[in-house]
Amino acid sequence: MRILGIETSCDETGIAVYDDEKGLLSHELYSQVKLHADYGGVVPELASRDHVRKIIPLIEKAMEDANTQPTEIDGVAFTQGPGLVGALLVGSSVGRSLAYAWNVPAVGVHHMEGHLLAPMLEDDAPEFPFVALLVSGGHSMLVKVEGIGQYEVLGESIDDAAGEAFDKTAKLLGLDYPGGPLLAKLAEKGEAGHYKFPRPMTDRPGLDFSFSGLKTFAANTIRDADLTGADAEQIKANIAYAFQEAVVDTLIIKCKRALKQTGMKRLVIAGGVSANTMLRSEMKALMQELKGEVFYPSLAYCTDNGAMIAYAGMQRLKAGETLALSSQAKPRWPLDTLSAI
Ligand code: KG4
Ligand code: ZN
Questions:
Q1: Which cofactor is essential here (predicted)?
Q2: Could you tell me if 192 and 288 lie in one domain?
């Protein structure tokens, strides 16, 4: 079976063709980062319009690269939510219409299920069950995963998502949007031991996160730092290092707790922040210590992409799920309300 996958929940137009026997046949991505950089964040209306401009040419390119005709497509999957409603509507309208025109089922995919299943695209895919740490720009959560659609949210952020905290702190350091990867790059030049950021909500039981305090701590640290001298860049790098270390440490503590609570030995880390090098190496060390295994998507599939939507859509298509013509985009959609397949 072959499926077209469409992702338009935020500021990336991602399109992919996935075949359940041959794997990923093509994968196209257009990032709107430059469009939003001047505003320091995603402008929803501009995002929707840019998706409208890019979606059809990208679908044509993905179909061509996959050497696939519409008659060979067995279903069309698109991100139905959560995300920006205008952006979601573009992918939903185009996806639902294509499915209608091609007379195949449409499948509505939950964006975070897409992230969660992205490591399944790799050769060393994890087996169920596992604990998933989902860390993106919009969400941070720990999920107990027994199978596809069998999700128990163990904890989530009560305020900013991890990626959001990276982006906001990066902005305070004068870095462009989205600042997460730029902050991580700056942190590489930073030295340990100059600043000590808090590890929020680690001193009490539970698996929820809170990252907004770290951003405030960063704002105060930057305000109190003397950034007028020749060493300003080094000071900023040291602050970036300490911030990143605090986020990573906090995530490590919570993952360790989640693994202990569930008795599981497999950990999956996905979402944009899972591209972070420090997070990846520290988690690897943790899982070696715990004699368990950690799985990530490859870097291209950590941040938003069409491949993960095509993969998740294929699993639901094979289970017989189809979306009615009257289906609507779901800007808010709790992960644990999905049906098990
Ligand atoms: O999953 P994603 O592409 O979009 C959402 O679903 O939100 O995640 C984007 C987030 C942004 O906040 C971005 O700054 C962050 O992931 N990010 C990183 C890194 N790469 C992307 N954060 C820290 N280190 C990175 N290397
Ligand atoms: Zn995402």
A1: Fe(2+)
A2: yes
